[in-house]
Amino acid sequence: MASPGASPKLEIHLGDNLEVLSGFEDGAFDLIYIDPPFNTGKAQARTRLRTIRDDKGDRTGFQGKRYRTVRLGTSSWNDNFEDFMAFIEPRLREAHRLLAPTGSFFLHIDYRESHYCKVLLDEIFGRENFINEIVWAYDYGARSKRRWSAKHDNILWYAKDPENYTYRYEDIDRIPYMAPGLVGPEKAARGKTPTDVWWQTIVSPNGREKTGYPTQKPVAILNRIVRVHSNPGDRVLDFFAGSGTTGEAAVRAGRQAVLVDSNPEAVRVMARRLALLNPIFHEAGRRVPAPPVEAEPNAPNPRSGSGHTGFLFPDPPE
Length: 318
Prior knowledge:
Blueprint: E1 10-14, H1 17-21, E2 29-34, E3 42-53, E4 59-60, E5 66-79, H2 84-98, E6 99-109, H3 114-125, E7 130-137, E8 152-159, H4 185-190, E9 197-199, H5 219-229, E10 235-238, H6 245-252, E11 256-261, H7 264-273, E12 280-283, E13 286-288
Parallel strand pairs: 1-11, 1-12, 2-6, 2-10, 7-9, 10-11
Antiparallel strand pairs: 3-5, 4-5, 6-8, 7-8, 12-13
């Protein structure tokens, strides 16, 4: 654990995470969160769009006003592993090695692989070290006409020591009561703590939080995990870092963060998103200069909440 007064530090590593992880010492991280590919068996793609007010535009928006659609680009990846367990197992074993004695590990996965991963994690961490399965439920996108539409992800939480782990109950964000009239004005005003089902919308395609990275997760999910399961100054690791949401949440809460991804595009997105933090970049085990970052077309100034390329809070902690 870093000393409480240490300045937050952000490291971004480009490379195969298994190789990068081997360079870290045992027990080096107080919190580890990963969001690996879900093994959907498909080539995945996301197209980034922006709408601009234009009376001759191609779509109608609020109050009947016309807008023109501008295509910013498409990101794609092949989410298909012939043997997902063979891919993920050595990385989960590294996570166990790297976790501090009082640390927590979170695996963000979906219904296709969650049950296999649960059995594997029981073997690696010990079944008694499983604390919770968190269901992130959202309501967005197409509906199936042949089955109940899948609108949730699974987050498996394991502790290195089930009797001694960080859980900052007072730092849990509270949510409104569904029937506030039944609990009285004092409780209604305070709100209640969430259960193991977290209702949170996905990152809006047109929202200020959007970075354009295909698998970006809402910062609200990572804010909750970081604030409750680590202490100020702690070291947080995400070795499937993607758009860098874990890094943003960690620094926002006064933690240190180490982000790893093998995709150069992910590193460029993180470099743009987290530029105000002056992150340190590594590749092939050595420190390298920051990659060149180009602003997206018509991008607003990347300051607090001013646009989807920027930081979502007023200023990074000193």
